[in-house]
Amino acid sequence: MAGDSKARPPTDPAVDEAFKRELVKLIPHLRAFARTLAGEPAGADDLAQDAMMKAWDARASFQMGTNMKAWTFMILRNQFYSEKRRSWRQTQLDQEAAERTLVAVDDPEAPVALDELRLSLAQLPPEQREALILVGAGGFAYEEAADICGCAVGTVKSRVSRARRALHAILEDGSYERDGSAAGDAMSSILADAERLSTVR
Amino acid sequence: MIEQRATEDRRHAPAALDEARLRQQAIGVRLRQMFDEVVSEPVPDEFLAILRQADKKTAENG
Fold first, then answer.
1. Is residue A5 part of a domain?
2. Is A98 within a domain?
3. Which residues of B touch A36 (CB under 8 A)?
4. What is the pLDDT along chain B (62 residues), one digit of tens a residue?
5. Testing the interface with A: which of B30, B34, B39, B51 to mutate, by most A Cβ within 10 A?
């Protein structure tokens, strides 16, 4: 097309194929990062898809052999923040979060611990949440997380430790005291789960 | 000397600190589990379809 001014450098089909294979392997991780960062499945998959396509379009700028997971995570979080700035679906997200809270209260069978953790995580400032997810769940070193977030290693360290303290405090305090269930129930069910998991392993 | 003091510190370490550490570990385990649960979900077909589509477009343009 004459109007296509964004001409890309010619691509090598074999290199493209290798890139695609690696990218496909990373999809589950991108989905997990999007879900924990954005906190809501449908919007999170949109975010993960956008990030995947941005990575594909930018493949010429990726150096094979370097950390592709970190590179795609960086694309995803940049996408997340730019969409957030356009207050992407924010109202809807808030509504859904509120509905989930109600459902969790109404349903005695709801898995309390995971849901409480999810809601607590959503209460953290995004920079703290992202640092904690990358280091605490994504398996990145502080240095890698700093590259992904575009900040200093020390900043990541302090965000992670503030996030841990805040999460602990949110789970411990009375913010989940409702419907007659005692405060601290979330924490005790998390403890019980952790114990069960560690005996399984 | 130093070793002795370290032992003493450990003995006097408040139980609350251990408890807090345990709780932090539990939250960490849960967080990882939350992440890993999504990782182990099957990838929706949509992802692969979109990528296939993009790849086809490249082949046509190239």
1. no
2. no
3. 34-35, 38
4. 555 555 555 555 678 888 888 888 889 999 999 999 999 999 999 999 999 998 888 777 75
5. B30
